């Protein structure tokens, strides 16, 4: 029986999280169970926007501070908030 890690390809999401307190520079992600550490790099993609890449800055319980590599446009910030409100989660990939 193979371990789960060996079954994950580069195209599989690492985790899902809900974004809160979105700003142009970053957001807070709330994770269900995945272990996340400061310094981890993630990317995510919203429809009609370029992929967003950033770094975990802090972790307190299931809340994670996430800094974007490049500032998000207001439209992209709104799309991220709307996506997480409507879909209740965003797929995060290792970057």
Description:
- A 6-stranded antiparallel barrel has the order 1-2-5-4-3-6.
- The chain is α+β, with helices and mostly antiparallel strands.
- The longest helix is centred in the C-terminal third of the chain and has 14 residues, at 74-87.
- The protein has helices at 4-7, 74-87, and strands at 15-20, 26-31, 41-44, 52-60, 63-68, 90-94.
Low-confidence sequence ranges: 1-9
- Taking all Cα atoms into account, the compactness measure Rg is 13 Å
Distance between the termini: 28 Å
Secondary-structure element pattern, one letter each: HEEEEEHE
SS content category? alpha+beta
| Main sheet makeup | 6 strands, antiparallel, barrel
| Count of distinct strands | 6
Strand content: 35-45%
Work out the helicity level: 10-25%
Number of helices: 2
Shape: globular
Major sheet: order of its strands? 1-2-5-4-3-6
Mean pLDDT: 88
What attributes does this structure have?
alpha+beta; disordered N terminus; 38% strand; 6-stranded antiparallel β-barrel; 6 strands; 95 residues
Task: Show the helix and strand layout.
Layout: H1 4-7, E1 15-20, E2 26-31, E3 41-44, E4 52-60, E5 63-68, H2 74-87, E6 90-94
Antiparallel strand pairs: 1-2, 1-6, 2-5, 3-4, 3-6, 4-5
Structure in a nutshell:
The chain has helices at residues 4-7, 74-87, and strands at 15-20, 26-31, 41-44, 52-60, 63-68, 90-94. It is of the alpha+beta class and 95 residues long. Strands 1-2-5-4-3-6 form a 6-stranded antiparallel barrel.
């Amino acid at each position: 029986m193979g371990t789960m890690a060996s079954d994950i390809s580069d195209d599989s999401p690492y985790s899902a999280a809900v974004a809160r307190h979105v700003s142009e520079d970053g957001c807070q992600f709330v994770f269900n169970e995945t272990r996340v550490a400061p310094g981890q790099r993630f990317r995510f993609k919203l429809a009609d926007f370029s992929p967003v890449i950033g770094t975990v800055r802090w972790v307190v319980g299931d809340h994670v501070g996430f800094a974007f590599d490049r500032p998000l446009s207001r439209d992209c910030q709104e799309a991220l908030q709307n996506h997480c409100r409507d879909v209740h989660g965003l797929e995060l990939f290792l970057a």
